[in-house]
Structure to design on (420 residues):
């Protein structure tokens, strides 16, 4: 895995050192935020708080495989916060984000806002969030994404109401570019989705790989909903790449066979968080040996077991992937802790305390569970929550300044395991 500590406004492109096949660690000056003025002291009178959240996560569309782990993370956090009985109750209403094609968010977001939620959890897709974020900001409601990675959100005019536990693609692009170079590749072909997610990650990947001395010999885009990729495949293969990065979603199961059936080695693909799925039989050709990147640290067995049990109770089915489950869980915990710290369920007050409870103010007491952090707050202290997704430590723009990027490799069954 690769661990980063960074300032929100710093740029990593062009300054990446190749660190071999093991972890690459970049250390920067972490951004800071002023401590919330609203933290309640131990003698301050408290009333029981209710935090109402709504999810805008993919039950349908091109990222539907991310829906179960993300909703399981939300559900588990809600259950454990309420069980802790620390003076706050969390209520959750689930909704479908869909994607930019089926536009399920156009129904979900107005319904949730109309029902008076204080925070939206979602979307997974950066492109989808961009289409409703201004609406949520206008309503004075927090949008907290567990999976948005577009760098564009760094400078979004969001009135302090947009937050995310997933790192910017500036980081993932660096890790992927260095991984491809470390594996000995010199000529990279890229096929990417033409949206905010795909274009941002393609730019970061291209710049990093070029900085290592490699050459991006071809880079071709496609649009969401496309089903035929023969033109892009032919154009890329004509430049004789020795590795191909695929930046996209479920359409990857069509793109990859198009390359393999044209003679490209199935072991030389590189994937990203949008398509690092447990493909199994859904990928009709062998991709044994191919690799991919995914934000997030190694999850403890206990956490995975709790997620699986939660999803079985919540949905009645087995949880196959765990992508962004930790980030979703931590999003809910951080919101609840911020509400306790602010002694308020007002979205603006909660937003004002999020950096503090994440460790962004730099003066909190470390804690690793909602209950332990809540006790610190209720005793008049400042909590610094380190969760399953990492240390977080939000900067002034609502980005995590600490992040981990894992590296995964596919076996003969087209199922991946973590290798770094």
């Amino acid at each position: 895995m690769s661990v980063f500590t960074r300032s929100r406004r710093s740029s990593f492109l062009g300054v990446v050192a190749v660190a071999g096949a093991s972890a690459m660690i970049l250390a920067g000056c972490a951004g800071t935020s002023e401590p919330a003025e609203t933290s309640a002291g131990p003698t301050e009178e408290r009333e029981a708080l209710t935090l109402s959240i709504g999810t805008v996560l993919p039950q349908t569309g091109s990222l539907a495989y991310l829906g179960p782990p993300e909703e399981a993370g939300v559900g588990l956090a809600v259950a454990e916060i309420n069980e802790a009985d620390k003076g706050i109750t969390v209520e959750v209403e689930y909704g479908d984000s869909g994607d930019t094609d089926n536009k399920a968010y156009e129904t979900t977001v107005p319904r949730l806002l109309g029902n008076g939620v204080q925070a939206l959890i979602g979307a997974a897709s950066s492109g989808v969030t961009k289409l409703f974020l201004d609406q949520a900001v206008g309503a004075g409601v927090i949008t907290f994404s567990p999976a948005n990675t577009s760098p564009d959100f760094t400078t979004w005019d969001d009135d302090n109401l947009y937050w995310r536990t997933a790192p910017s693609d500036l980081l993932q692009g660096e890790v992927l570019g260095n991984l491809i170079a470390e594996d000995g590749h010199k000529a990279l072909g890229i096929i990417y989705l033409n949206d905010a997610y795909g274009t941002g990650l393609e730019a970061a990947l291209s710049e990093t790989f070029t900085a290592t001395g490699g050459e991006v010999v071809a880079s071709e885009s496609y649009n969401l909903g496309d089903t035929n990729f023969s033109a892009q495949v032919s154009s890329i293969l004509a430049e004789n790449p020795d590795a191909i990065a695929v930046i996209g979603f479920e359409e990857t199961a069509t793109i990859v066979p198009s390359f393999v059936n044209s003679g490209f080695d199935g072991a030389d693909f590189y994937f990203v968080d949008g398509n690092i799925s447990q493909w199994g039989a859904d990928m009709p050709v062998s991709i044994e040996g191919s690799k991919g990147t995914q934000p997030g640290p190694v999850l403890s067995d206990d956490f995975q077991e709790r997620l699986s049990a939660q999803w079985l109770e919540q949905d009645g089915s087995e949880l196959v992937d765990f992508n962004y489950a930790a980030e979703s869980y931590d999003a809910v915990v951080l919101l609840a802790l911020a509400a306790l710290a602010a002694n308020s369920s007002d979205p603006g007050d909660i937003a004002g305390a999020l950096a503090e409870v994440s460790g962004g103010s730099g003066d909190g007491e470390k804690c690793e569970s909602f209950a332990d952090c809540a006790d610190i707050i209720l005793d008049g202290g400042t909590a610094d929550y380190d969760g399953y997704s990492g240390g977080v430590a939000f900067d002034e723009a609502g980005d995590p300044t600490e992040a981990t990027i894992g590296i995964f490799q596919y076996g003969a069954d087209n199922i991946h395991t973590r290798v770094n």
About this structure: The chain has two domains: 38-168+302-402, 170-295+406-418.
